[in-house]
Specification:
The complex is a heterodimer. Chain A is mainly α. Chain A has one domain. Chain A is 71% helix and 1% strand. Chain A is built from 14 helices and two strands. In chain A, α6 runs antiparallel to α7 and α8 runs antiparallel to α13. About 1% of the residues of chain A have low confidence. By secondary structure, chain B is α+β, with helices and mostly antiparallel strands. Chain B contains 21 helices and 22 strands. Chain B starts with 7 loop residues before the first helix and ends in a 5-residue tail after the last helix. The model of chain B has no long low-confidence stretch (mean pLDDT 86). Classes of the chains: A mainly alpha, B alpha+beta.
Chain lengths: 397, 605
């Protein structure tokens, strides 16, 4: 056991943040699923706690294993292609599956296991890996339009595949990829044009949603959510009271919160353990707790940027930045929804929300970042040793 | 890659930090600045439903129900929870127009946006059933059961009093009450508010923002049950009270009947009165305004406790007793009556025609003014050798001892003091040392500055009936159980006047009825003792006053009847008093003609 712990390498701050978030996840899920346990498991309140404990421990294990792999291995062409093609395959399968059950599905059942997973969870890191590879390989020609357009193809492909089932994930992924390309020194003009095109697409989509909501699979849901977000008074209590309840949770939490286990809003929030877990955290832990969680994600991001900054290889740098940005961006979106800054989306709070496969993919993503970080440490170690040896050489001569 | 990881990363770092800060600012905003949600936090989620206890019933001395409750329902509103809904449909359900709806909601909002306000009070049982079915469609509204007071006999309106919504000032003083609560405003409802009201309970329900009930909070651990109000047994005799009200039809005045042996009030009639059921429920404010506007009849004025009259000749008994006690009068003391008492300089207190001279008993029997002018002068001037003032104060103290000039401070709501002027008053009026017994000679015959209330006069009568003591008049004889006794007011007040003087006066009062000024009150079967009075009244015809008790031995009822602007005491007050006595003692009226004449007599113009 000690051997494994000694083997934990990479950025210790990131490890610390992940551990804290995991513990918080257990605490909040246990408290938030009380009524769910009564509704679905005959009042066995430990059920969700134990389930989440298994998920979290397994996630940490995945993270540990992934971070032991040398990150350059992820840059191998076949790894990248296989994950990318798998993502496309699963996304396509999801759309077909969605057609068979006659609604836009987000979850794909894994045959024989009883588990489900979101193909987009896989597609997100896969696309970022793919993009990091392309960006790293084409750094010299990065300013050419041809290369730029070429890089847009996988992004648009994946995003379009995700789009019907999960607009927000597609949008988050698209924005993250653009940021990554921009960071990787793409031409500002190209990015600008893409943003314009994206905006035009957005406007057209907005128009379609608002006027022909039935033309798009989840158009009506989207339309309603946007309306509610734009205008408080439109909040029709019969259909959509999540936001109001989240705000009540936040407001009643106060500065120090109601203390763990004392939430009353958990009975009213539709998903206190996933989509609205941030509101729940503020209710129980107060403004202090909410601020702390926000700071954890911000710190996580700064540590990841630090890793990216120090990394000598372009691929590792882009990979860790891209994945890190994606995770933290999603976290901020989730929190923004909970506090009413953004319309309701189905984004979970990474590493905290209850969930199985989704949490694992996040853990694996962070494992990759830690792998890059571990690589940095090894390189530094090697530099030091080599210096010492040469020093000794001189001494003996 | 540090060589080329451009400055763009700083932009991203700043951007992310910016978003993080925006989150925190937003959080702060929701928590601190927008109080909207914290208010809903407690009030949306937990609804505190007041459980109103049933208010205690009131019975008469024989167990007849005077006041009970009927269920009604208040439609409550929490303005903050109102969402858009079919307003027209809602208004149609309640039978109000949209304008009224908006006004009512605005008014409720002004009181509080997040606390329940009564939107529409006292919906009947039938309408309630109809409304409750549809209420879920109107978020922010719910129904709260309440009780309405009912008065099956519709008598003794002033005595039982009424309840109404508690005033903001009262809420400030007594935090037990919340807006919309009922409180006793007058009569028994007021005096016994804390016994009748019981104790409110609180039910805590968990509701969601749709105002849907999600069950009780913590399995009702914090709920409290209401404690029902306690019943009261009034000393009133409902039959006698009703009969008194019947007799006083179309007359101004009052009847107060007391059981001398206990001080329990048997009847407390004020006329004109009103149907107590008028001041119940939704129609209360409208009817109250209507009654208050009636300045000719003043039906809301509780004459029995609040009207102050000069007692007239009934007061001669007081002076006689004081005189006897002071040794100034003897049973054989006689004064001649030349048809009046001269005050000098041509002023005369007139007297009516009767034989002369009279002894004490006859002076009562024939109500001789001259006799009492002499007597009063002697009481004042010989009472103290020092001064008129000292003599007067001594006399006043004794009058005070009879129960005049002050409240009994029992359970009679809105009782007034009456007025026995102090020596200081005369000092101010005439100047210090510039008045003497002549100046105040009207007091000898119960006129002048003196003011007494009917209940005080009735108490005088009870005191005489008891031959020298009284129990303070009170209205509630039992609390909680019919056979328990409300001993709080059973404090015997003994006058320092000897019993034999009372015996003399009682004999004289018997003669008044048998062969004196009030033969109209005579009955063959019952020995009635009484004294007439005619109170001069600057505003019109004299008030007719009669005090009486019966039977002579072991009296069971003592009463005072005052009929305003009716002339001599003997004309109206005495027959009415005798009918009341007959009713109470025999439960039947033999003298139908007299009864009819009294009931039909219309002295209102």
């Amino acid at each position: 056991m000690l051997r494994y712990i000694r083997n934990i390498q990479g950025d210790k701050v990131i490890w610390g943040i992940v551990i804290i978030l995991s513990v918080l996840s257990l605490l909040t899920v246990y408290s938030a699923t009380g009524s769910l346990a009564y509704a679905k498991n005959d009042g066995n309140t430990e059920y969700y706690l134990i389930k989440q404990l298994i998920v979290v421990v397994a996630g940490l294990l995945f993270m540990y294993l992934i971070h032991l792999v040398k990150y350059t291995w992820y840059s191998k062409g076949y790894i990248i292609f296989v994950t990318f093609l798998l993502s496309i395959g699963f996304l396509a399968a999801l759309i077909i599956y969605g057609l068979t059950i006659n609604s836009a599905a987000r979850w794909l059942p894994i045959p024989l296991t009883g588990l489900t997973f979101q193909p987009s969870d896989l597609a997100k890191p896969a696309l970022v890996m793919f993009l990091a590879k392309l960006l790293a390989n084409n750094q010299d020609k990065i300013k050419s339009l041809k290369i730029y357009l070429f890089m847009l193809i996988p992004i648009i492909l994946i995003c379009l595949l995700i789009f019907p089932s999960n607009f927000s994930t597609a949008a988050i992924l698209f924005v993250s990829c653009l940021v990554l390309i921009w960071i990787a020194r793409a031409r500002m003009a190209h990015i600008g044009l893409t943003i314009l095109a994206g905006a035009a697409f957005g406007v057209i989509l907005f128009f379609l949603i608002m006027h022909y909501p039935k033309a798009i699979p989840r158009g009506e849901t989207w339309k309603h959510r946007i309306e509610v977000w734009l205008d408080d008074s439109k909040a029709d209590p019969e259909a959509d009271y999540q936001i109001t309840q989240a705000k009540i949770a936040i407001a009643s939490g106060g500065f120090f919160g109601k203390t763990p286990g004392k939430s009353t809003q958990r009975n009213f929030l539709p998903h206190p353990y996933s989509d609205f877990i941030f509101a729940f955290i503020i209710e129980e832990y107060g403004l202090v707790g909410g601020g702390f969680v926000t700071l954890l994600y911000l710190t996580l991001f700064f540590r990841i940027v630090r890793i990216a900054n120090r990394c000598k290889g372009n691929f590792g740098s882009f990979l860790s930045f891209g994945i890190g940005f994606l995770i933290v961006f999603q976290a901020l979106i989730n929190m923004g929804v909970a506090v009413g800054l953004l319309p309701v989306t189905g984004q979970t709070l990474p590493l905290v929300s209850m969930g199985g496969t989704s949490l694992w993919f996040t853990a694996i993503s962070i494992g990759i970042i830690l792998s890059v970080s571990r690589g940095l440490e090894i390189e530094a170690q090697e530099e030091k040793t080599s210096f010492k040896i040469s020093d000794n050489l001189y001494a003996t001569v | 890659m540090s060589r080329g990881f451009t400055a763009r990363k700083y932009f991203i770092l700043v951007l992310i930090a910016g978003i993080g800060s925006a989150l925190l600012i937003r959080l702060f905003f929701i928590q601190v600045i927008a109080d909207k949600y914290i208010l809903s936090a407690n009030n949306n989620v937990l609804r505190y439903i007041t459980q109103y206890p049933a208010r205690g019933f009131v019975y008469d001395r024989n167990g007849k129900l005077l006041v009970y409750n009927e269920a009604a329902y208040d439609l409550m509103v929490i303005p903050r929870q109102i969402r858009d809904f079919d307003t027209t449909g809602f208004c149609r359900l309640l039978g109000i127009d949209v304008q009224t709806f908006i006004e009512k909601v605005e008014k409720a909002r002004k009181y509080s946006s997040y606390r329940p306000t009564i939107f529409f009070p006292q919906i009947s049982k039938e309408n309630y059933g109809f409304l409750e079915e549809k209420l879920f469609r109107f978020p922010g509204f719910y129904v709260q059961p309440r009780t309405l007071r009912k008065y099956p006999l519709a008598i003794a309106a002033h005595t039982v009093g009424y309840i109404g919504e508690v005033s903001p000032a009262m809420i400030e003083r007594k935090p037990y009450y919340k807006s919309g609560d009922y409180i006793g405003i007058s009569g028994i409802e007021k005096s016994y508010e804390e016994i009748l009201r019981g104790k409110k309970g609180m039910k805590i329900r968990v509701v969601d923002v749709h105002n849907r009930d999600m069950g009780s909070f913590q399995e009702g651990k914090y709920d409290t049950l209401p404690v029902a109000g306690i019943g009261l047994w009034a000393s009133l005799d409902a039959d006698l009270q009703a009969y008194g009200e019947l007799l006083m039809t179309n007359k101004k005045g009052s009847i107060v009947a007391i059981e001398p042996s206990s001080g329990e009030i048997l009847a407390l009639v004020t006329s004109p009165s009103y149907d107590p059921n008028l001041l119940v429920g939704q129609v209360r404010s409208r009817n109250y305004a209507m009654l208050a506007r009636d300045t000719a009849r003043i039906p809301l004025f509780n004459r029995a406790l609040m009207a102050q009259y000069p007692p007239g000749s009934t007061f001669k008994i007081v002076n006689a007793l004081i005189g006897l006690h002071e040794g100034i009068l003897k049973p054989t003391t006689a004064f001649g009556c030349p048809g009046g008492f001269s005050l000098g300089s041509g002023k005369v207190v007139k007297c009516h025609a009767h034989f002369s001279p009279l002894q004490l008993k006859q002076s009562i029997q024939f109500s001789c003014n001259t006799y009492y002018c002499h007597a009063f002068r002697n009481i004042i001037d010989k009472g103290s050798r020092k001064s008129t003032r000292a003599g007067y104060e001594k006399w006043r103290k004794q009058v005070w001892d009879f129960g005049f000039g002050h409240k009994f401070e029992t359970d009679l709501a809105n009782e007034l003091n009456g007025n026995i002027p102090s020596a200081d008053y005369y000092d101010r009026f005439h100047g210090k040392n510039r008045w003497n017994s002549y100046s105040i000679i009207s007091l000898a015959i119960g006129q002048g500055e003196i003011g007494v209330t009917p209940v005080q006069l009735a108490n005088l009568c009870a005191t005489i009936a008891n031959r020298g003591f009284y129990y303070p008049p009170h209205i509630i004889r039992a609390i909680g159980k019919a056979d328990s006794l409300n001993s709080k007011f059973l404090k015997k007040h003994v006058l320092n006047i000897e019993k034999e003087h009372f015996d003399l006066v009682v004999d004289a009062m018997e003669d008044v009825v048998l062969a004196g000024t009030a033969t109209g009150a005579r009955m063959d079967s019952i020995s009635v003792c009484g004294k007439t009075g005619t109170a001069q009244n600057p505003h019109g015809k004299d008030h007719s006053i009669f005090i009486a008790f019966a039977p002579k031995d072991n009296p069971r009822i003592a009463l005072c009847v005052i009929v305003e602007n009716a002339g001599f005491g003997a004309t109206w007050a005495a027959p009415i008093a005798s009918l009341m006595i007959e009713k109470y003692l025999t439960r039947k009226i033999q003298r139908q003609d007299l009864e009819t004449r009294m009931v039909e007599g219309n002295l209102l113009r």
